[in-house]
Amino acid sequence: MQLALNNPTELDALAQQIKCWGRELGFQQIGITAGVTQHDQQRLFNWLAAGYHGEMNYMAQHQAMRCDPAQLLPGTIRIITARMNYLPAAVPFSANPTHAVIARYALGRDYHRVIRKRLKQLAQRIEQQTGAFHYRPLVDSAPVLEKPLAQQAGLGWIGKHTNLINQQAGSWFFLGELYVDLPLPIDPPAVNHCGRCHACLMHCPTAAIIAPYQLDAQRCIAYLTIEHHGAIPESLRSLIGQHIFGCDICQQVCPWNRFAQLTQERDFHPRLQWINADLITLFNWNEPQFLQYTEGTPIRRLGYQRWLRNIAIALGNAPPSLRIWQALIDRLVYPDELVREHIQWALARHNRFTPALY
């Protein structure tokens, strides 16, 4: 017998069942909300007006859809939000200046496919209970204000670094949404617990967190190494360190991550080539090797040229050695001007040294 969607008791029971199904499918938490607030919308408008989105022009597009779920999927009245841990146990935070630094979320399989598949499975379980209904699973695949939605659904609060933080689990998790036309009961929004802490602001190497809850993406290492397509500003290159894809520093220093929970998803376990990855080894990959080793990972989206650009900067920030000097010299013949510019910058960082000194 199908559920009576006008019965509050049955809807409450369904909401609880959805949360149980979510845990069975590998999500650590499920929340339900009706949408974002006017405050959330205004924060988006202010951020865009300040130009803090940089080259991420997609953030300025379809603003009405971001703020009104029903414009993205007609008939939507609830958003089921989900979070899934991704922190792997096997990868320490390496301090070796010749090792590449890659954001933890990118060490395993691309999370988009994993989470979207689970959200679809969750929808199918609901459908068995309710009969056919309209739904759409979303994982960074449409104009959605995922962090404000997750906060409204009780999954966590948006911290001063603008990431979502959960009081019991820190911030090392992915988010996904399931838009539905079911009149489910909603969960209370999460309460902010950042307090007086300013650790993320103090430790951001590029001062991208310009004020509590305000991120200038144009200075953010994650933006510069992933979203930015052109030359990275020279004033920021030395601050990037050995980061070649993303940055986790604001999460590493967040006190709430002492409660972080390790992932149980094998798909998110790090691939061997990323564990203590040597910068020169990665720099010496040809394009077919890059495509082979990054297949099925978020890193593939960089493309080979930006991959070399990022590693050239990391090598320029590494301690001088003959091995680094030679690797940079060997790449000077690369036909892409963007890559050569960053290699030349890296060599200039070491120009007070000559091979004879090594």
Automatic annotation (TrEMBL):
[4Fe-4S] cluster 2 binds at C204, C220, C247, C250. It is an enzyme of class 1 (oxidoreductase). Gene3D superfamilies: 3.30.70.20. Cob(II)alamin binds at R66, D140, L164, L175, C247, D248. The keyword Acetylation does not apply. GO terms for molecular function: 4 iron, 4 sulfur cluster binding; cobalamin binding; epoxyqueuosine reductase activity; metal ion binding. GO terms for biological process: tRNA queuosine(34) biosynthetic process. Pathway: tRNA modification; tRNA-queuosine biosynthesis. NCBIfam families: tRNA epoxyqueuosine(34) reductase QueG. Catalyzes the conversion of epoxyqueuosine (oQ) to queuosine (Q), which is a hypermodified base found in the wobble positions of tRNA(Asp), tRNA(Asn), tRNA(His) and tRNA(Tyr). This is Epoxyqueuosine reductase.
